Amino acid sequence: MSETAAAPRTGTDGASGRRRATRQKPPLSDRARAERRLGILLAAPAFVVMLAVTVYPILQAFFDSLFSYRLTAPDQRSFVGLANYGVLFTDPVFWRDLGVTVLITVVTVAIELVLGFALALVMHNAVKSLRGLLRTAILVPYGTITVVSAFAWFFAFDINTGFVNAWLPVVEDSFNWFGSAAPALTVIMLSEIWKTTPFISLLLLSGLAQVPGELTEAARVDGGTRAEVMRRVVLPNMKAAIMVAVLFRALDAFRIFDNVFIMTNGAYGTEVLSLLAYRTSIGRLEIGMGSAISVVLFLCVIGIAIGAIKGFKVDLASGEGR
After folding, report:
1. pLDDT at 316
2. Has residue 35 been placed in a domain?
3. Pfam families attached here (predicted)?
4. Within this chain, do residues 176 and 294 fall inside the same structural domain, yes or no?
5. How far is the C-alpha of 148 from the C-alpha of 285, rounded, in Å?
6. Is residue 178 part of a domain?
């Protein structure tokens, strides 16, 4: 009786054990272990330095956010716990600025991804003799200092010094691009797209270079159209490069400051979170509330990073041990 009862359990355990074994990753080879160890040793000094210069400001900002603290009245500093965050989350200005920041991030990253991929295809398929010149020309906007770029776009669209209104027949000469939220945000996002699209294109170009040519040729021989080859072969093999491009740009776009500060200074509903933190801390000298905004901004950036990594589900270590 006991033997017959034990038999099914043994069979079930054996099947589940086999399934677990198939899910386990193959053991790393000696070469893979050595490469991983070398990578850790090479990255460790930079990681330690970055940790040393970033952990203290983050902890100090969180500590200051727990106090009601103004630089104009240092003797009146008092511990308020999470009260600054309560005030922040009930302030409609904060939610408006958060919405503007999210809008700029989503729109710019989406457009930059499409344009960057198009530029990457052009550079990837260009004649060898023209590749160097083409890449240099594309990188010119990205090499421009952000402040200089922002001033250039501001003077181009300004109602007094700009030439854009004269060039666009559908726009009146007296139209003020920085007189309301929608056109001002449009110029701000255009300036961001113009400057940082080359960065996206370089990252995607590196991803295109990693796509095996044999796979694309085999797909074309099997009768696949260009769209099918792009969707079924090229894009899946570029998943890691796309994730890195989206992650880097989203983190950078969410912290936008220079363009908004120079073009509108946050007027007409164009203020973003980083500008709100600057105005609160530097303008009104409210260190406690400004630190709370900075902490929330930091947590949002961390959330974007985690969401991008989880969303793309890219296993960067899948090739180890082969």
Report:
1. 53
2. no
3. BPD_transp_1 (PF00528)
4. no
5. 28
6. yes
Joined together, the tokens standing for residue 235 give 């894009």
* 131 located within any domain: yes
- What is the block-wise mean pLDDT of the chain (322 residues), using blocks of 10 residues? 44 48 63 85 89 86 91 85 93 94 95 92 77 80 90 92 85 87 94 93 87 78 77 83 90 92 92 94 91 93 89 61 42
pTM higher than 0.85, yes or no? no
Examine residue 52 and state whether it is found in any structural domain, yes or no.
no
Burial state string for 276-310 with b = 16 or more CB within 10 A and e = fewer than 16: bbbbbbeeeebbbbbbbbbbbbbebeeebeeebee
Question: What are the structure tokens assigned to 141, written together?
Answer: 């906007």
Within 24-91, residue ranges assigned H as helices are 30-64, 83-89
Residues 279 and 251 occupy one common structural domain: no
Question: Domains in the chain: how many in total?
Answer: 2
Of 80, 84, 108, the C-alpha closest to 94 is 84
Task: Tell me: do 265 and 286 sit in the same domain.
Answer: no
List the domain range (segments joined by +) for residue 223.
108-269
Residue 166 Cα to chain centre, angstroms: 35
